[in-house]
């Protein structure tokens, strides 16, 4: 029996154990070679012998340098390695702690394989490698090898040495396959150096080893730090070596055994380096691209045509590699960067159609198979791969094979939905993990890659009805919520007890992975919006009555105003804004006038539509152009802008009170000014039509639009020009309006005094013969302006009364010169103990630090302060984030009229004040009573 130990082994074991010195143990080892035959060496016998020899003795042999004068320096190591290589095929012995502790010794031997010391004893190197490879066969061994940084050291051996480097590469591939991208650190230099050496060998070797190297390079690329490699590969030579090596194989007459590893390597190369890697040939860049695409399409058709799902799974690695090539090629061709003639296009289409016809045949069989709900892990992964590549094709070609697609569409939705929820739950569960773990990748989310195809599919009547029957809109809503949580990143909340201590700490920088995830989620949200827009337009009745679409509209109302105003968010912001308009139009009958959330949403959407075009002041002051911040993304949002303008016009007709936002914001005035200033004939007809249609609807809905330009101060100056200086009424109004437009652009830090700057503004807008009136007009305008802004007597009295009991302060955002002019002219210093202007400080509301600064100047803890303000997104939100004692909201007139008798629950949670007051004169009754009248001290003044 295998567990029985033979008598010769027992005898030798006894001799070894009784040896009293290393000399006696050496003699006993020679007895082993004489007494024991190969047939006696079962596992039990080997273990007994190993224990009898003892690792202490072997360790001394491995590390001792004290050898007899007439012996080679490595003789003791040679004996020890010969013994260890005999025993390490057994798992228990290969993972013995003493064996694992000897890994550095083995590494030291193989890393000096080119030294003269080993020239005559190369068997030592072989045996050291044999021990390392035996250790790598077992999990505890692989963990020990990783702990000793064997991958790095073996990579150095491969790149620097010339002897037995294949063993080093085999060891690297074994460990990389186990530890994935975590095998590599944040410095890509070693990876690039290793790939350079291996790729050069691959390119120049024309023996069978070439195909072995192809498989090893595939594994290295598959398990690399893809994001890091892709960012740092510029200037490296190994991609070109790979290109030449693969090209040589695929252009030769080869069999399946040679073609398969080349296709797998090509798939991993394009996955890491991008499909543009196939265009290395400067003279004919598309030649290799088309060859690879055709070979992949043919391989898919050969492997899947008239085959069962199980038969395909058996060739899953090869087919999936071809899927990668097809998907990336299809996506690349959709960008029209490749100059394909009609013959090329026809050949590509024929090849792809054949491949996807075979693929759909397998999917139809699987969809009808009873085992489709019990797929094993590898089977499910292959099914996901089929769905992924198919939807890449459907995103570009929805008209082909409609009948087959309709048959499998419910099954595709089912697979995609399962993958989404599994991936979402995993990522939410691991959201708090701070470990940059490249080994633990989240489960695949097939719904994410399917979104562009769904956008095209829902336009088709049959596919859209399947979409609705499967209630896919609910899944997309869940998908939108999830991706919003990533795209609209918020830094983790700081515990209340640590807020003051950490108030000046910079925000933590996001990792490259977080930034990539945000970018991907923004793209996903854009696709989701496009799908939902199509459904909203094509299924108007359903959307009007749907509770789910009402929830979606509510989500946009409450969340879009909170989106950060940064260039990266512009396209996503526009899609959400216009989707909201479409939903608002369909559900207009359900909108209540006291709905607070619509207020900020409409303001945000107006901002998106308003900022798209402006006058080209620098080049042609009479030309309307796309604004600078929109120009980069204009191709993506141009049609969106026109749809938004058209829908906004329709909404005003259905919900007239929304027109007040266009008036209060100044948008209507801005459009009129734009139309007046732009040179006739230069305004694009579709833009002119959009503006005129909007203004027409606005005038019909609200009679206040007509006199909207007659602001108090501008009107008086216009009257002065008309009555005293002979200006026509039209020219007087235009001059005053032009001044107001320029005035609103007041810089934070003017190079000249503010009075001089404003006088210059008047001089700029006045006709040449009247420029001498600039100083007079500025003085009259300023007089009227502050007469208009003056504090009413009752407000002055209220402030004087409050200051007897409370310390009062002002925090205002705005340019230094303009804000301090208001403060001085209105004599606010006599009412307030602290006045802060944002341009004087490194912060502005709602940054909590400016609130902390005010508390510091007043000498009052934040918890004993009350913030009173008219803007939720700056005053109230900032007060809440600074953890002040209370916040009181004084709504603007527009918000008071529209919101009406709202309740506190209508206000979003993160900007919800402790109280709302519709008149500033009601404040004293709302404030907490002071325990005593304060004593005024100079330190608090």
Calculate Rg over CA atoms: 38 Å
Instruction: Estimate percent helicity.
Output: 55-70%
The DSSP helix count reads: 46
Distance between the termini: 99 Å
Give the uncertain stretches in residue-range form.
434-439, 709-715, 896-902, 931-941
- The tally of beta strands, per DSSP, is 7
User: Structural class of the helices, strands and pairings?
Assistant: mainly alpha
Q: What can be said about the biggest beta sheet?
A: 3 strands, parallel
Q: What's the rounded overall pLDDT mean?
A: 82
Percentage of β-strand residues: under 5%
Specify the overall morphology: elongated
Strand order of the largest sheet: 5-6-7
Notes on the protein architecture:
By secondary structure, this protein is mainly alpha-helical. Among the domains are: 54-182, Alpha Horseshoe (Leucine-rich Repeat Variant), CATH 1.25.10.10; 184-276; 471-490 and 514-711; 716-787; 790-926, HAD superfamily/HAD-like (Rossmann fold, 3-Layer(aba) Sandwich), CATH 3.40.50.1000. The chain is 63% helix and 3% strand. The protein has 46 helices and seven strands. The strands form three sheets. Strands 5-6-7 form a three-stranded parallel β-sheet, covered by helices on one side. Helix 42 (816-825) links the parallel strand 3 (809-812) and strand 4 (834-837). Helix 8 (103-110) crosses helix 9 and helix 29 crosses helix 31 (596-610). It is elongated, with a radius of gyration of 38 Å. The N and C termini lie far apart (99 Å).
